[in-house]
Amino acid sequence: DDGRFFWSAVDEATDINSLDFAEAEGNPDGCVRVFAHLQELWVFGFESIEVWFDDGTSFVRRGSTVIPKGCIGKHTIAELDMDLFWVGNDNVVYAARGYGFERVSTHAVEKAIRETTDKNEIIGWTYFRDGSAFYVLSGPDWTWRFNRTLSRKVGKPVWTERYSYDNGDRWLAEYAVQFLNEWIIGNNSDDGLYRLSADAFGEAGDYLVWKLRSAPLHAYPKQICIDRLHLDFVTG
């Protein structure tokens, strides 16, 4: 909480010299988490971020870099190749842009973050699937997924809600790792590991959830009569 971070000897994680530490003091606001990104250390504070690097003998701050945006919860930080995502101290999701930042959340996502009492319960993680890249953000009773690939294509942030059967409005999936060309997904309700597959017709033994919302319709002050409704389903 005092903003210090420590490092070990090379190839010896248990050998930590009491003098091998530094302190993020450009804006002395404590330390939420230290995260390695593109061969640099991003030291996230409550109100700001500092970038440090290894100069061969120690860690030093990158120039006078102090990014004026803190982090609201240590578990929200996640890397997606060149991108770094986190939830700021203003309940907004940001992506790093060099040593700057860009808002990528929508008002609906920010509302879910704002209404979560314990921000340390919010978890962010990333994965790739079929040519698309995703950042997933979950709270105790909600999950939103950011589609980075589609967002870049349409020029605005694209978020969708994810659900699991009989699990409220939260997706069971939590954290992912790529192993032997497969994506292995953890489960937030037990210690099971699952394989992400396009051939699956269920989720951890339960039904897949699909929600369909109609387009907005209005004819105020008149009423609307829908004469016919066709539903054509294919399972998958």
Tell me the number of helical segments per DSSP (H or I, 4 or more residues long).
2
As a whole number of angstroms, the C-alpha radius of gyration is 21 Å
Ends distance: 48 Å
Structural class: mainly beta
Widest sheet: strand ordering: 3-4-5-6
Q: Report the mean per-residue pLDDT as an integer.
A: 91
Counting DSSP E segments of at least 2 residues, the number of strands comes to: 17
Largest sheet: number of strands, sense, barrel closure: 4 strands, antiparallel
- Low-confidence runs (pLDDT<50, min 5 residues)? none
Order of helices and strands: EEEEEEEEEEHEEEHEEEE
Q: Work out the helicity level.
A: under 10%
Beta-strand content: 35-45%
Shape: globular
Characterization of the model:
With 236 residues, this protein is mainly beta. The protein contains 2 helices and 17 strands. The protein has helices at 107-114, 148-154; strands at 4-6, 21-23, 33-37, 40-44, 49-54, 59-67, 78-80, 83-87, 93-97, 100-103, 123-129, 132-139, 142-147, 159-161, 173-179, 182-187, 193-195. It has a 4-stranded antiparallel β-sheet, with no helix packed on it. Strand 8 and strand 9 form a beta hairpin. The model has no long low-confidence stretch (mean pLDDT 91).
Element layout with pairings:
Layout: E1 4-6, E2 21-23, E3 33-37, E4 40-44, E5 49-54, E6 59-67, E7 78-80, E8 83-87, E9 93-97, E10 100-103, H1 107-114, E11 123-129, E12 132-139, E13 142-147, H2 148-154, E14 159-161, E15 173-179, E16 182-187, E17 193-195
Antiparallel strand pairs: 1-2, 3-4, 4-5, 5-6, 7-8, 8-9, 9-10, 11-12, 12-13, 13-14, 15-16, 16-17
